[in-house]
Amino acid sequence: MNPRPGPGLRQALLATLMASLLAGGLASCGGGGNGSAFMAPPPAAATPQPPATGGGSTNPIDPIDPTGQTPVELKLTTLSSRPDLVSGGDTLVEVEVPNDLKAADVKVLSNGNDVTAMLEASTDGRKLRGLVSGLAVGANKLVAQVGPDKAYGELAVTNHPITGPMFSGPQLSPFECRTSESGLGAPLDASCSVNTRLEWFYFTSAGVRQSLTDPFGPRPADIANATTIDGKTVPFIVRVESGTINRSIYRIAVLDDPAVPGQLNSAGWNRRVVFRFGESTAAQYNQGSNSVTDAFKSDAVDQQSIKALERGFAYVVSTLNINKVNVNDVVAAETATMIREHIAKTYGVPRWMVGMGGSGGAIQQMLIAQNYPGILDGIMPDAAFPDVFGTAMAVSDCRLLNRYFAANPASSGARKAFEGHMNTVCANWDAGNGNAILATNGAVSPACGLNDSSKVYNTLTNPAGARCTVYDINVNSLGRDPATGFVRRPLDNVGVQYGLDGLRKGLITATQFLDLNENIGGYDADGNIVKPQRTVADAEGLTRAYELGRIGSGSGGLATVPILSVHPYAEPGGDIHTIYNDIKIREQLMKANGRADNQVIWLFPNPQLAQVIGKPAQVLPLSLLLRDLMLTRLTLMTTWLDGITADPAALTADKVALYKPADAVDSCWDVNDGTRYKEVATLNGSGMCNTLYPKTPAPRMVAGGPASDDVLKCELKPLDDADYAPVVLTGPEKLRLQGIFAQGVCDFGKPGVGQAKLKGTWLKY
């Protein structure tokens, strides 16, 4: 079952779309070839499990007709998505008509059925555009022709159910619905679908949101106006569409001034989309929940959503684009592209779509941009991390270290020498996210986010149950170990000399160094701490993690996407969102591309920092400054993306740099007075920014790892006295060290085990 909007709603949405078509509002967002105006490139030739998909080019079946003449080629394209990634049974089609032919003479067929009436001619008569519906699930063939021999064109289209999947592989199971909890009623099917609904809200002149219970009736007297970035002034009325796509609950908010029932008016939409990605990290076997008012999600700090709506942006949230609900970035990418396709088919093709959101929401943006370029034209990550598995490595190290120090108390200085981070950061990682690698207890309760606890894995009673780790959620890309049936886990700490840098600098003694490394331990297959053995990664899982993009690499689409990152700083208070991650991302960009000028890092004092350092009076001014900063960032990103998308040239790193606004430069703001310092962000360099906000590295980095912090499992080398200089170990200490590291120690001068280049983008599973 593929639930769609009801007849009245569907008719209204189609009327809105056709009005946009006739007004010429469905211009391509730039680039695209291969039979599609969507920006994403074709799938990589080598995929883990490549399915048979439709092609994307306009290719006549027989370019020579029976009369012996060569017909003129008619070019068909899909405007709403790539032709091999159509969903929901319909696609927005365009036929280009050569100058010597008339649009009225073109006939369009879908699987042999005449669908010409579904398309309208453009005002210049050079194009036919329209929503072609009735597509079968799987392969479809669109044909455009004029007479038996004058012109011909063909396009292969692959249609997928609106419930998914398209390219993410077998869907997560078990899987529980949350439509009732989201105010959308009981699910209509096993895919947690609901009927689409529309609701209207307005903002008063005092800035208060109210429900508009009679959208087609008289306007409230206190309604405010909104002025868009295009200079349009419209009533500040927002329409929120709620529904399900790919088992995810979405909310799309946009300015609307409804006048006649059955006719929707999105004239206030500026053709740009802000897609907000959600926070945290967890392994949940459910749909996630939200409310219609999440389309207005904001707080006293930023108010980004409301301001974005007021300026004419469409604003989108989706439950499977919340990292604590769905930690599978392939499913997140799939959901985002299906929602973008839905917007194109029901509102009009967006000029561009930008991502925003912090922490786990930043992870989804980074990985979608890297692995599935073209879904997000720009990203605005807050408190960024580059990926899940690299972050899980740091978190798992922190859990081991925190548990060791709980049993063996040490000074804050000694802990920092091993942990890298400021005091309590590792403890907070352990408490807040350490369970993300534990098979029997996710980061939320009940385990795995399931209401039915009988579905959860248990070593003895339910060995085939749902396992609550971030790795198990990504089993389609990591694969399974045939010997155990468990996911191939790329987690390892063999040979890691925790605290090596601190030993060299005299921050810890040789005894402290040896004691901890001898007793730090590792994890068993279920994520339980075991001692004294270390964690051993699955070799194939390591290679897959790198090649298939589960690790941040700086490559793929990250080379050509504008990145405007804001990182509120509060590490002295134990904030886990450590700011070294921005430099980690930059190092990865540099390694992959030799440049990182598409990344801008803004470092800002989190209002919490003022309280931590004893300046509570600064909290409100900093909150207001941060709010204004977030809005300034959206304005800069708009300028950047408008320039890029207006230029028909191919998307390259040089093109991205060409349109970068002058004010889009690395900066930090002073916690004391809000002064801005424009300085290139570095890990340890001089300058006000590093003085005000010193960066603290992860445990692997103070164990000798690289600044890119992307080595999941190190190559090993024999022990060498020179590695500990100026410290000189005694004979007994050397013997003890040899016992701890009998296989050798990490050689971080070499790439990690299985550390391969990204296999490609738009991989299918």
Q: How many helical stretches? A: 17
Instruction: Give unreliable regions as ranges.
Output: 17-68
Helix content: 10-25%
Instruction: Please state how the strands of the largest beta sheet are arranged side by side.
Output: 12-11-15-16-18-17-19-20-23-24-25-26
Rounded to the nearest angstrom, the distance between the terminal CA atoms is 23 Å
Structural class: alpha/beta
What does this structure look like?
The protein is α/β, with parallel strands linked by helices. Among the domains are: 31-160, Sandwich (Immunoglobulin-like), CATH 2.60.40; 389-437 and 470-548 and 701-746, no CATH class; 556-684, no CATH class. A twelve-stranded mixed beta sheet has the order 12-11-15-16-18-17-19-20-23-24-25-26, with helices on both faces. Helix 3 (329-346) packs across helix 4 (360-371), helix 5 (389-407) packs across helix 7 (425-433) and helix 10 (510-519) packs parallel to helix 17. Mean pLDDT is 89; it is low at 17-68.
What attributes does this structure have?
Immunoglobulin-like, six-stranded mixed beta sheet, alpha/beta, 24% helix, single chain
Quick synopsis:
The protein has 17 helices and 28 strands. The protein is globular and about 90 Å long.
Question: Would you spell out the secondary-structure blueprint of this structure?
Answer:
Layout: H1 7-22, E1 72-73, E2 75-78, E3 86-87, E4 91-96, E5 107-110, E6 113-114, E7 119-121, E8 127-132, E9 138-146, E10 151-160, E11 197-203, E12 209-211, E13 225-227, E14 233-235, E15 237-245, E16 248-255, E17 272-276, H2 304-310, E18 314-318, H3 329-346, E19 352-358, H4 360-371, E20 378-382, H5 389-407, H6 412-419, H7 425-433, H8 475-478, H9 500-504, H10 510-519, E21 522-523, E22 529-530, H11 539-547, E23 563-569, H12 580-593, E24 599-605, H13 607-612, H14 619-646, H15 653-658, E25 667-669, E26 676-677, H16 688-692, E27 716-717, H17 731-740, E28 745-746
Parallel strand pairs: 1-10, 3-10, 17-18, 17-19, 19-20, 20-23, 23-24, 24-25
Antiparallel strand pairs: 2-4, 4-8, 5-6, 5-9, 7-8, 9-10, 11-12, 11-15, 13-14, 15-16, 16-18, 21-22, 25-26, 27-28
Helix pairs in contact: 3-4, 5-7, 10-17
